[in-house]
Amino acid sequence: MVQYGTPIAIVTERDLLSKVLAGGMDLEKTKVSEVMSFPLIKICPDLEIREAARTMIRKKGRLAVFQCGMICGVITASDLIREMPDAPETSLVVDDFMTKDLVCVEDDQKIEDVARIMGQKRVGSVIVKEGGTPRGIFTERDLLSALIAKGVSLDVPAGEVCSPMLVTAPTGISIHEAATIMATKHIRRLPLMKKKKLAGIITARDLVEAYAR
Questions:
Q1: Residues 37 and 69 grouped into a single domain
Q2: Do 151 and 203 belong together in one domain?
Q3: CA–CA gap between residue 47 and residue 34 (Å, rounded)
Q4: pLDDT in tens, 66-115
Q5: Quick check: pTM over 0.85?
């Protein structure tokens, strides 16, 4: 959001999910000022990548890059993992950072109910199951794409709009290997398998947090 020509805040997918949909607000009537993340987390262009990662984790948000008082870009967790070096600090295994206690929903649950669960649990994705078996993953991006880009009703079952888990990786890989897979496949969440069963999930933010240590 810009005020008097100066950027002062940002609106993210998480803002729309947790504050609008999960909060029961009307997407058509809600103003940006009611859901925006404020203030901006400002950094300079010459900040080192690892320090940027530490700032992102410490401040809990995306980074706005300012130069000479003007905004010149925004850095997300996905941006940082694309630049993650193959170094000792990225050789740690994903098992120590992945989420094992996964939030799951059934494929016939309405998008509205799933969005509310995601907002209440403050998670960016849920595993969609069919008869107890993982069928796909439903993310913040799937939610906003369905509602805004495709005009799908909130009454539609999540199973109809979830993304199939086409890309997975085994547990035991390094955070650098996970970052490479996610950057190459343009995904922000990577399901991790152990003995052909879903063992957990790691996100771009999890990798940034591991690298920031």
A1: yes
A2: yes
A3: 31
A4: 998 899 999 999 999 999 988 888 899 999 999 999 999 999 999 989 98
A5: yes
